[in-house]
């Protein structure tokens, strides 16, 4: 027995020595067999230890789950009572109250979840109090106060002063302003008054310029959208008059339309079309339409740019589908392009209405409202009454009527637009 134990210990030491020295199993096969025996026994011991630890973990997990279920069952009634009381007292949502209640019932004290719920409650109370405070209600008005002050001084005060002046006989210079009631309005609206002539000229001017400007602008935008050679150059040429002052344009056309040395009549005479030569700004029958042509030349580029931007928003797939279906140019224009540009057209119409009522510089620089009253507009009549005739009260009444007409026409146009959209 002792010999066997001695031999066994010697084998173990030799195996350990061989493992430390890294000896080859071919050199000492007995040692290697002893080492394999030791490894097998150690591996078996490890398996037994792992199984024992796994059993302990399973027992611990089962006990913990049973403890949690017991605690949940014991505290469920306490939690429900705490949630109801907490939500009623602090006016909070049930989810926050549930978080605080669960923390208090299970831990016996307010934990991190309860603290977070309390912070949310205080934040809501603070935000509600700040929203109801007068500072929070006043803050939006402070942002718009500068704009309101500037508009009030330069726009609304002037409108109010004009309305008040229209009921007086102010001459536009002195400080005496005697109240005369509606005399200025009765004189202005009397049958055969210059006001009706000027209003009719304004309406004709508005219809002609708005329709032709929109039509030519749309046609040019559709053509230039095809990206022809030099399209960018032509867009710049057509848009250039907008960048020029109206006074300069009026002075240029006054020379071009001169009956004796004007470029239009000279070109007609060169082509042996002398019968077409006219006094473009001196004939009462065509002077108004000559002013319309000047205005169209000035603002046609603006309509073209607006329509061009609208065309860029229409998908090319629609035009490709129309081309596949065999639609021609005019069919595509009236069935696809114009309906899709209805919003752009309404905007141009509204701008044209307001712009026609503001027309002054071109008329005063070319014809001055003549010959006679054939090109008299509301603004030129207002200028003559206030500056040349020193009748500030009548001039103010004309301004009030222009404002009323502009608002009425804009509302009518918006009503038609809304009805069409519906």
Task: Explain what the structure shows.
It is a single chain. The N and C termini lie far apart (113 Å). The protein is flat and about 120 Å long. The protein is built from 17 helices and no strands. It has 422 residues and is mostly helical. Helix 7 packs antiparallel against helix 14 (342-357) and helix 16 packs antiparallel against helix 17.
List the helices and strands and how they pair.
Blueprint lengths: L1 H20 L7 H62 L3 H14 L4 H21 L1 H32 L17 H6 L5 H31 L6 H13 L2 H11 L6 H8 L16 H26 L3 H9 L4 H12 L1 H16 L3 H6 L11 H11 L3 H30 L1
Enumerate the spans where pLDDT stays under 50 for 5 or more consecutive residues.
1-8, 17-38, 90-111
Name the overall outline.
Answer: flat
Question: How many DSSP helices?
Answer: 17
First CA to last CA: what distance? 113 Å
What's the helical proportion of residues? Answer: over 70%
How many distinct beta strands?
0
Largest sheet: none
The H-and-E topology, N to C, reads as HHHHHHHHHHHHHHHHH
Radius of gyration: 47 Å
How much strand? under 5%
| Structural classification | mainly alpha
Q: What average pLDDT do the residues reach?
A: 77
In a nutshell, what does this entry contain?
It is built from 17 helices and no strands. It is mainly alpha-helical. Helix 7 runs antiparallel to helix 14 and helix 8 packs across helix 11.
Notable characteristics:
flat; single chain; 422 residues; disordered N terminus; mainly alpha
């Amino acid at each position: 027995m002792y010999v066997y134990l001695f031999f066994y210990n010697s084998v173990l030491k030799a195996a350990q020595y061989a493992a430390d020295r890294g000896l080859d199993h071919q050199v000492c096969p007995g040692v290697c067999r002893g080492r394999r025996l030791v490894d097998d026994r150690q591996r078996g011991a490890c398996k037994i230890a792992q199984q024992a630890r796994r059993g302990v973990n399973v027992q611990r997990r089962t006990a913990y789950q049973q403890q949690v279920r017991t605690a949940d069952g014991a505290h469920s009634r306490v939690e429900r009572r705490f949630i109801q009381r907490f939500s009623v007292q602090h006016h909070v949502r049930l989810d926050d109250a549930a978080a605080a209640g669960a923390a208090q019932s299970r831990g016996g004290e307010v934990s991190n979840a309860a603290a977070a719920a309390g912070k949310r409650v205080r934040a809501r109370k603070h935000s509600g109090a700040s929203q109801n405070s007068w500072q929070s209600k006043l803050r939006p008005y402070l942002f718009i106060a500068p704009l309101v002050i500037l508009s009030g001084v330069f726009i609304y005060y002037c409108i109010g002063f004009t309305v008040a002046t229209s009921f007086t006989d102010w001459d536009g210079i002195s400080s005496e302003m005697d109240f005369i009631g509606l005399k200025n309005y009765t004189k202005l609206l009397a049958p055969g008054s210059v006001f009706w002539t000027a209003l009719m000229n304004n309406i004709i001017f508005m219809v002609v310029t708005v329709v032709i400007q929109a039509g030519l602008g749309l046609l040019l935008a559709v053509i230039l959208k095809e990206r022809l050679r030099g399209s960018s150059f032509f867009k710049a040429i057509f848009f250039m008059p907008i960048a020029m002052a109206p006074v300069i344009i009026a002075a240029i056309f006054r020379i071009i339309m001169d009956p004796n040395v004007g470029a239009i009549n000279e070109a007609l005479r060169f082509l042996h079309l002398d019968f077409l030569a006219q006094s473009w700004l001196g004939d009462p029958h065509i002077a108004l339409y000559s002013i319309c042509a000047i205005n169209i030349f000035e603002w046609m580029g603006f309509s073209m740019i607006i329509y061009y931007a609208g065309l860029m928003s229409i998908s090319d797939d629609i035009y490709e589908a129309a081309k596949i279906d065999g639609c021609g140019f005019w069919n595509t224009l009236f069935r696809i392009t114009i309906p899709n540009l209805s919003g752009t057209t309404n905007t141009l119409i509204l701008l044209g209405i307001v712009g026609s009522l503001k027309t002054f510089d071109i008329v005063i620089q070319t014809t001055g409202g003549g010959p006679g009253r054939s090109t008299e507009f509301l603004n030129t009549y207002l200028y003559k009454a206030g500056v040349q005739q020193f009748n500030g009260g009548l001039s103010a009444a004309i301004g009030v009527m222009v404002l009323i007409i502009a608002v009425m026409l804009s509302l009518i146009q918006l009503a038609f637009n809304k009805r069409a959209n519906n």
